[in-house]
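--- STAGE predict ---
source: upstream dedup step, 1 unique chain passed
mode: sequence only
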Amino acid sequence: MAKLWFKFQRYFRRKPVRFFTFLALYLTAGSLVFLHSGFVGQPAVSENQANPAAAGGLAEGAELPFLGDMHLGRGFRDTGEASSMARRYGPWFKGKDGNERAKLGDYGGAWSRALKGRVVREKEEERAKYIGCYLDDTQSRALRGVSFFDYKKMTIFRCQDNCAERGYLYAGLEFGAECYCGHKIQAANVSEAECDMECKGERGSVCGGANHLSVYRLQLAQESARRYGSAVFRGCFRRPDNLSLALPVTAAMLNMSVDKCVDFCTEKEYPLAALAGNACHCGFPTTRFPLHDREDEQLCAQKCSAEEFESCGTPSYFIVYQTQVQVDPRCTPNNRCMDRRFLPGKSQQLIALASFPGAGNTWARHLIELATGFYTGSYYFDGSLYNKGFKGERDHWRSGRTICIKTHESGQKEIEAFDAAILLIRNPYKALMAEFNRKYGGHIGFAAHAHWKGKEWPEFVRNYAPWWATHTLDWLKFGKKVLVVHFEDLKQDLFVQLGRMVSLLGVAVREDRLLCVESQKDGNFKRSGLRKLEYDPYTADMQKTISAYIKMVDAALKGRNLTGVPDDYYPR
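--- STAGE serialize ---
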């Protein structure tokens, strides 16, 4: 046998052309046999993958075989049900349990990309609903709010999140990289085939087309996020007693709409726009119209004559929006609401604004600065906060030029360095999630789903949950003069709790400064209500551990004759 093989090798070495000819014939024959087997028999697929349409649905987690570029192959029966699901949902559609999604193959081509974007984010978190493809004229935009472009990393969610954070109802994507926001769609709905461009930062998803928008209606998750474009919805209020003094500028508008009144008051440089049926009133928040007592919105539920979905109030009850104009209540001639400064002399005491991370410290600093007119300081330095206006961030925490000092520190030595403290406590379940979002998404950003589902979240809870308890226990034990404020009480009863805080700081509470707080209370330090987890990230073991820490803190507070933790801290 060895001798025969040696003769075979010597033959082809002498005649290499014959060798390569033989090799080419061998490969061709093998290819033909392989292709023939693909048409004669069924592809080799797992038991769960075989004939899913005939089974009435897909087995959980089953993945369909590749379908080819031109038509459905033999691995998938082209039933009406299956093809209709593919046309409706693109590459992702629900399995027979209604929850799991099975992945369809890649069809290829522009038409297939249009199919691939239909379920996009609509199925995730119900944060937005896809409503269709719309024509967009560069001379007369379909969505006329803000816009931004990113020709490398544009995604559907990024566009939605940016529009939602600015209070718009609609988000539209175009050319695969352009994002437009608006409160109404001012264009015609067209065929889905016109929106056929893939998102630059999200393969397999559609971001409009050439002069065509893929439009989503945003589902804001929080009442406090209600806006109309750039204007913040403040609520329904009773007509003030002296209207001409409270809201000095008035205009009659036959075709009243929210944007007309808001634009009118913005042009007149007033921070409040009040809609009263066919009348638009503009003014400042003052003691005559302080915006403290909101009424039931049903009292203002009169539709705008030029707006299908919005209320324009009545002559007796006004719908009020806050415009982008900076507030100047003009209660005192030399005061501007947003003016802040350092203390005129060095403070004789160091007062801490202490909290566990994620408990609302940045928001509390914003409120204190508005209410007092003085900068707050920090035990740390955060450049991003300094750039957002917290000028005390750069000062050394012992400088004595700031009204109070932010700190997350615990431990006897660090706590005893302060003469007094405002201790801000928040529900640990909310605080942990807020700090996790900050850690992985910035001060007003969000952690990605991969972080919540990965090892980061369990490890974070394991390390930070004990700290939530020990932080409060240490300040109660070692603090010299501690004022406890619950974050939830501050949100619910802002002026009472803020008054307590300002009194500890030794500053007289002035009505005009409280009006500043009323007008600017959210600032730019609140996360959008758009992204909301559809599941509870806390496991049973996590809840059991955290509940034990809550009971420890509750007992410590009551042991010092203080109010215990709010009822909504537990049970989960």
